[in-house]
Input
Amino acid sequence: MPLPTPITHGTVDWTGENPGILLKDAGGDFSAMALFFRVAWSPVGQGQVLLLYGTPGEEKGPLEAPNVMLTDNHDLAGFLKEQFIGRLAAFRNAPAFDALPIRPAQAVRSRGDPMSHRYTETVSGEGLVVELVWEGLEPPKALELTPDQVGTGMHTMFTLLVPAREAQIIVNGHALPGEVGTRVQAGFETTTAFLYFSETWVIPPVEPL
Output
């Protein structure tokens, strides 16, 4: 009996890290949202991208809670916005999405240890210093998800998930409002604050008719 092939067939979209924080208000709506990407490979190269919805319900948001992308690779930010973020309903349906500006990041720094209590990513640029803080980190889960289990609906995804029970999005020293909530992914309950490491998105091959 032949051994199964170790190759996952399809087209690799991108691979890297993708932690995020989605904060909710008392009514259950998103009050602030952030995704961070540290991409090791993509069709448009490596790089780091921060997507910040400081005010998800507004097109631009005020200076203290802007809606913006900060990046050291403009092409990568555009690629992720159109090919990945734009397929995630919570982000695509926000008023800020279509006019979201892409601005240069001057510095990106991670601190802490995901095995400890606290981990941070800090991105600065365009007069902004944005700090993402994850606390109360839980044991990791290794995931292999099919297209019907991911937000894009079109990828196979492999990743290591580290949920966080508490999190903050801090803009120029001021914490944006909201609390960490719960969500269901692939049939299990987790939180809206998460570290995703070793994350790889693959578009499966088209099955012949």
User: Anything to note?
Assistant: Residues 74-83 form the longest helix (10 residues). The CA atoms of residues 23 and 180 lie 5 Å apart.
